[in-house]
Amino acid sequence: QVTEESLQADSGADCVSLELRAADGALVTLTADFRQEVKIFRALILGELERGQSQFQALCFVTRLHRNEIIPSESMAKLRQKNPRTVRQAEEVRGLEHLSMDVAVNFSKGAQLSSHLHNVCAEAKEAIYTREEDVKFWLEKGVDGSMFEVLPQGSDVPELQRCRLCPDRWKPCICSYSLSIEWYPCMLKYCRSRDAGGKVSSYKCGIRSCQKGYTFDYYVPQKQLCLWDEET
Predict the structure, then answer these.
(1) Strands 92-101 and 56-64, how do they pair?
(2) Which of 33, 75, 131, 157 would be a feasible disulfide site paired with 71, CB 3.0-4.6 Å?
(3) Using one digit for the tens of pLDDT, what is the confidence trace for 95-132?
(4) Do 14 and 99 form a contact (C-beta atoms < 8 A)?
């Protein structure tokens, strides 16, 4: 499976974005906002028209951006691709991350979490999710807590099943969505040089590339919004 990706960096806004078309036709975007320490995953998933879905369904997953997850925006802006058609393979496969997205984010108030949320998640106004542990981090930074709403959990509602096991298309359930970022610059490489006087100094001399998969679990009010998550 060869994936075509486009990478963009804006060092002024201190953010990077990466876009790719997944094997199932979904358009996946990752936006890393270094200034606010926020990363936003957006998936535009093709709908199943014959099963009553709209043309596409949009999802946004917002999580905390940690240091050393992805290279800084000014380094990304300097990357130049000599051979655009070369097929590249990630040097490091980072483990699958399984995230329980137990909080909904209010779209109209989300701009203070990240100024990019309005553009990136415009099609997913009713489907923006985050995690309680990330919310705690942002609240400590002074973000307004009224934009967050805790979603029903399996522990609170015993009859809440995973969507793949739920027989009724109109019942609420816990949906699962997986995506993979096949190739992204995750770390800078440093080389050492020695001058005439024998003094050693280090300088940036390249990037290390990574591949990483994510699985997001989140509440949906009806299984109809989660038709891909079925036992095959």
Answers:
(1) unpaired
(2) 75
(3) 899 999 999 999 999 998 999 999 999 999 999 999 99
(4) no
